[in-house]
What we know:
This protein has one helix spanning 107-118, and strands at residues 5-6, 12-13, 19-21, 41-42, 71-78, 88-94, 125-126, 129-135, 139-146, 161-164, 178-179. It is mostly beta strands and 184 residues long.
Amino acid sequence: MTVPYFDDAGVYHAPDGAVLFVPGSACVGFDASHVSDPPPACDVSPDAALNDRGVPIACSPWPSVPTGFPINFSACIPDFSSGPPDGGHCMTEEDTSLVERCPSADAVGDAYCQAWAQQFVVTGKAVATCDFGESQVFGSDNLICFFSATEQLIECTGTKMVVEGTDAAPDPVTGVVCRYPCEP
């Protein structure tokens, strides 16, 4: 029986040799210049303009993430920082339909998830693990890929992911380097 493998170029292949994940492939043609933009303000009123997915228009272009990245914009959150909300800002959350299932909670599953996550990285090495998690799509106790190592106590926030081997400064508290997808 053949097992999944990486070729010399770092491409991940299924046991039958089919290409599954190519490093940086989700970033080809993707403009990453706005992935670090702060969340835009949005209208939290009941009559706010929505796009065809029911998302406030102000949130539609933010954040800019590559195709297949499982964290995207969702809706407006009211801003209570100065009293009753007269506005809000866009928020990010997991798009459960894009969460990747993985084969096993061991080195094989972790290699699969790292290869899957690496398609969203142009500089450095993605850190991802296969572990049991809950998802609206897959239910509870299913094996899914996480953009972090299980021993890390904190995950990157928003649309960021854990990446090693870059010249980016790590967080002073956690020591983790969090980067946006396809960030150069």
